[in-house]
Specification:
The chain is an alpha/beta fold and about 260 residues long. Helices cover about 40% and strands about 25% of the residues. It folds into two domains: about 170 residues, P-loop containing nucleotide triphosphate hydrolases (Rossmann fold, 3-Layer(aba) Sandwich), CATH 3.40.50.300; about 70 residues, no CATH class. It holds the Pfam family ABC_tran.
């Protein structure tokens, strides 16, 4: 479904992404891990069209997208979230859902008070809010949501499009254990309904529990790839996270905890 080949990106002579290749097959939940500065978010930005890579190719369902605008990539069904949730803080939760719906520009114009939005879109928005535990917050302003609720809202908003592949950037950050379990359940449920995932996160327990395979990055390069358990146990990945102080099993134990 997603094929990233030999992508490179430099900032002022420093390579944020260095000849990275990865593949996400349809129906898979793939993780992307690495310490801060590894290049994970930069790679997300290039894949989703927010940053233009220096070289390399990106294909989504067979179509080249390395020179395609973010909005057009989203219309193809490749959608992403951000580390810091985006949205319209002075609009209601429901209005934010409708703005991010798959409606065309004319339909979205109705959301801003000129007339009622399409009934089917409104029904979809309400059902999605209910699925993500936000139905009671529909008429509340986004600026009044707690940080974990903002995370769930961004996830819910992404589902308003005709989505095929969802890229989640740090979905577990700042999320309490109960909500994290809920998030994990949503990802698995959506995968069973045909959504493919590429997930970046620092929470190794979360990543190893929800992802079937993992890519590990360091200094802009992929240093390991394979089944989740194999990557978590990879010596290079262990050194990346815990150093060389002899804690050879600590990373695997953390993921299993």
């Amino acid at each position: 479904m997603l094929e990233v080949s030999n992508v490179t990106l430099s900032y002022g002579g420093v390579r944020a992404i260095d000849d990275v290749s990865l593949t996400v097959a349809k129906g898979r939940i793939v993780g992307l891990i690495g310490t801060n500065g590894a290049g994970k978010t930069s790679l997300f930005n290039v894949i989703s069209g927010f940053t233009r890579g220096d070289k390399g190719s990106i294909r989504f369902n067979g179509a080249a997208i390395e020179n395609v605008r973010p909005s057009e990539i989203a219309q193809l069904g490749l959608v992403r979230t951000f580390q810091t949730p985006l949205g319209f803080p002075r609009m209601t939760v429901l209005e934010n859902m409708l703005v991010f719906s798959r409606a065309d520009a004319a339909s979205r114009g109705r959301i801003f008070g000129r007339s009622k939005p399409d009934g089917a879109i409104l029904e979809q928005a309400m059902a999605t809010l209910d699925e993500f535990g936000l139905a009671s917050r529909g008429n509340d302003l986004v600026q009044d949501l707690a940080a974990p609720e903002l995370k769930m809202l961004e996830f819910a908003r992404a589902m308003m499009g005709d989505i095929k592949l969802l890229m989640l950037d740090e979905p577990a950050a700042g999320v309490n254990p109960a909500l994290l379990e809920n998030l994990t359940s949503h990802i698995r449920s959506l995968r069973d309904r045909g959504v493919t995932f590429l997930v970046v996160d620092h929470n190794l327990k979360f990543i190893s529990s929800v992802c079937e395979e993992i890519y590990a990055m360091a200094d802009g390069r992929v240093i390991a790839h394979g089944d989740s358990a194999d990557v978590i146990a990879n010596p290079d990945v262990i050194r990346l996270y815990v150093g060389t102080g002899g804690a050879d099993n600590s990373l695997s134990k953390e993921a299993e905890a």
